[in-house]
Amino acid sequence: MRLITARGLVVRMGGAAVLQGVDFHIDKGEIVTIVGPNGSGKSTLLRALLGIVPAAAGRVDRRAGLHVGYVPQKLAIDRNLPMPVARFLSLPRRRSAAEVAAALDRVGLAPDLGTRQLTDLSGGQLQRVLLARALMGAPEILVLDEATQGLDQPGEAAFYRLIEEIRADSGCAVLMVSHDLHVVMAASDRVVCLNGHVCCEGTPRVVSNAPEYRALFGLGTQGALALYRHEHDHAHDPGEPGHDHHHHHHGGHDHHAHS
Amino acid sequence: MPILDDFIARAALAGIGVSVATGPLGAFVIWRRMAYFGDATAHAAILGVALALATGLPVAAGTLVVALAMAATVSGLAGRGWAMDTTLGVLSHAALAFGLVAVSFVPGLRVDVQAFLFGDILAVGRGDLGWIWLGAVAVAGLIAWRWSALLTATLNEDLAHAAGIDPGRERLVLTLALALVVAVALKVVGALLIAAMLIVPAAAARTLARTPEAMALAAVGIGALATLGGLAVSLRFDTPAGPSVIAVAAILFAGLLAVAALRRKA
């Protein structure tokens, strides 16, 4: 079952096209990772799929009444806002103490963390609390925007293991964005490589061998972020209509016949 | 009620009424770093006074209209990503200057401009008191009604969006509440000190509170306490009432801060 679908999506920011003709979909229970270098429009795509930024052209369809659990990139809390963890988990809808305790337990945090202030948490604890909040009320899809920024590598790996566990337990779909592919990739059913348009997509193995992906991220050091531009990236001029998006589909991801 | 015959009782009730509105709204002003926003809206009230005096409208109506226009302008500019610090500084002081100039043009002006700049809490009548409480309860009710959504949007706008809350609408709620508070508080603390009534009690409440709800309620209490203390000081030493209220609030803030620091050390 399709949860979110985008067709020919164009998003403009201050006149410039950040996303150009993006086709995208995510199904029930699927883990999809969007990868791409800095400035490739990953977060914008996520925000457009959630309806936070409007589409300049094309369309985004979310299943009616879709319950989304969202984990933002970061949460900048003013120190003047007192916010205990348990209260935060009850926003915007009130949750019972039992629900709060269960959510904390689910993400591997002690129940007594509920009385701690958000501003007193470590980066890793805060990420887990954000995840716990997103899991409140059993969402059908979890959306994570570079959720592991500021975590060390073991912390990051543990976080993604947790995501996989949650998917296995609850069957919710997971849509995440990352610029660091190495850790995320193994957990994903499908990877979409983005650079203003969809460069390539498929299973992690297929994408990591795709020439478009290698051009973006370098050959030898998988996961190390190469900042040079895409070699096929002649097509970013917004004034050039109907260009070829280099939207390649490589074999080996038969469970997503995305023509 | 015979108690309302006493001008001091009316002044105290007026100050407490204003605190009911400025407590919760002030908490949001602090959390969202809107201090300058409050200033600009309050300063615009002087322009509203000039408008009201020139057209014969009630002062509260003129103030409300101009404060609402200013709050909406600032809120709109903020939404478009202007450099708010500078823009607000210009708007805030321009509104005050134009207001004072405009008031001087009103022919046959019998009112004292000072009363609008610093408030005239001891001159609050029964009618004023009714309006103050009506406005204050409206503001507190509006914020209580939108509480969870406001809090979520204040924490993170994307988080709010994903939960089906429109952060733009919540911003509008605060804008409306701010304009109402300005109209209500003008008579009590005056245009120059309305922002202080928003910020100082809420900042003092921060040291006492562990939840957002507690902070908003404590801000109401501290505002009321500052009103009573300020009035007492004003009567005893013949100081201007509005500034005395804010001075007491500031002393409460400093005292609570010191206590909190000592407790942390212990």
Automatic annotation (TrEMBL), chain A:
Residues 233-259 are annotated as: Disordered. It comes from Ruixingdingia sedimenti. It comes from the Bacteria. Residues 4-220 form the ABC transporter domain. The keyword Electron transport does not apply. This is Metal ABC transporter ATP-binding protein. SUPFAM superfamilies: P-loop containing nucleoside triphosphate hydrolases. Keywords: ATP-binding, Cell membrane, Ion transport, Membrane, Nucleotide-binding, Translocase, Transport, Zinc, Zinc transport. Residues 233-243 have a biased composition (Basic and acidic residues). InterPro entries: AAA+_ATPase, ABC_transporter-like_ATP-bd, ABC_transporter-like_CS, Metal_Ion_Import_ABC, P-loop_NTPase. Residues 244-259 have a biased composition (Basic residues). The keyword Membrane applies. One of its GO terms (molecular function) is ATP binding.
